[in-house]
């Protein structure tokens, strides 16, 4: 056993496997999360609205101009 394979890592791996089994794989789990997202928003939770690819960043002005 290596130093990072302690109880917490085993617990996380176990929980991940249980969630995937419960929801029928990654696609089912993603559908579940999407449904929860709508429910959580209705309860007042706020989520980031960043688009894929991250925030747009404008290049800095050229100091030579």
The poorly predicted ranges are none
Number of strands: 0
Reported for the largest beta sheet, the result is: none
| Measured distance between first and last alpha carbons | 59 Å
Strand proportion = under 5%
Structural class, please? mainly alpha
Which outline best applies? extended
Helix amount: 40-55%
Helix/strand order, N-terminal first: HH
The mean pLDDT is: 81
Radius of gyration: 20 Å
How many helices? Answer: 2
Summarize the topology.
Layout: H1 7-23, H2 26-42
Notable features of this structure?
65 residues, mainly alpha, 52% helix
Structure in a nutshell:
The protein is mainly α.
Provide a descriptive summary of the structure in words.
The chain is mostly helical. Helix content is 52%, strand content 0%. It contains two helices and no strands. It has helices at 7-23, 26-42. It is extended. The protein starts with 6 loop residues before the first helix and ends in a 23-residue tail after the last helix. The mean pLDDT is 81.
